[in-house]
């Protein structure tokens, strides 16, 4: 229905949106698919106008959700190495909960890092099945070893420590 008064037109449009939310979402979705360049340009203009507020919002979100940042970083590293797979922040939190917030190698509690059982550099994937939570010390010591190689190294070091006692 066409209105001569722009305010009447706007009011009618808002009422229609309230009555037909799914139709409105579908129409927007169709427009975005049909006009990807215009949609991208609109997003760039929005972010350029609201840069400071968006950066502050993103910084706050990242401080409150470090697991998301960790997962994004690991996924970025995996893409650089062209490794298959990725994992989400929720999958990481579930894995950490499985290990009760402790390192999978030494059992230390505290800040944990994602460690690849088979390192990315040796052809490992970035799927959650190839990830273990590890403390910084164990992750740095493990370096390019596989999980089995590193556990064997830890066992031999424990054996040497027991013999010297």
Structure described in brief:
By secondary structure, the protein is mainly α. It has helices at 6-19, 21-34, 36-49, 51-64, 66-80, 89-98, 136-142, 147-164, and strands spanning 113-116, 131-134.
- Rg, please? 25 Å
* CATH class division of the largest domain: Mainly Alpha
Mean pLDDT, nearest integer?
Answer: 92
Query: How many structural domains does the protein architecture include?
Result: 2
Please give the count of helices: 8
User: Into which percentage range does the β-strand content fall?
Assistant: under 5%
- The SS-based structural class is mainly alpha
Order of helices and strands, N to C?
HHHHHHEEHH
Span between termini: 90 Å
Q: Could you give the order of strands across the largest sheet? A: 1-2
Which stretches are low in confidence, meaning pLDDT under 50 for 5 or more residues running?
none
Q: In this structure, how is the largest beta sheet organized?
A: 2 strands, antiparallel
Oligomer: single chain
Principal-axes geometry comes out as: elongated
Which bin fits the share of residues in helices?
55-70%
CATH architecture of the largest domain: Orthogonal Bundle
Would you report the number of β strands? 2
Do you know the CATH topology of the largest domain? DNA Binding (I), subunit A
């Amino acid at each position: 229905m066409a209105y001569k008064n722009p305010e009447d037109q706007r009011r009618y449009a808002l009422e229609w949106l309230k009555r037909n939310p799914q139709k409105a979402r579908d129409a927007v979705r169709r427009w975005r698919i049909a006009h990807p360049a215009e949609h991208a340009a609109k997003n760039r203009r929005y972010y350029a106008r609201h840069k400071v507020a968006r950066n502050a919002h993103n910084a706050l979100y990242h401080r409150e959700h470090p697991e998301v940042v960790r997962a994004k970083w690991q996924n970025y590293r995996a893409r650089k190495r062209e490794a298959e797979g990725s994992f989400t922040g929720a999958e990481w939190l579930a894995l950490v909960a499985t290990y009760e917030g402790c390192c999978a190698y030494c059992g230390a509690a505290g800040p944990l890092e994602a460690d690849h059982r088979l390192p990315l550099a040796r052809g490992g994937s970035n799927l959650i099945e190839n990830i273990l939570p590890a403390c910084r010390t164990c992750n740095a010591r493990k370096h390019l070893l596989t999980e089995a190689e590193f556990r064997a190294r830890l066992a031999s070091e424990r054996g040497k420590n027991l013999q010297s006692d």
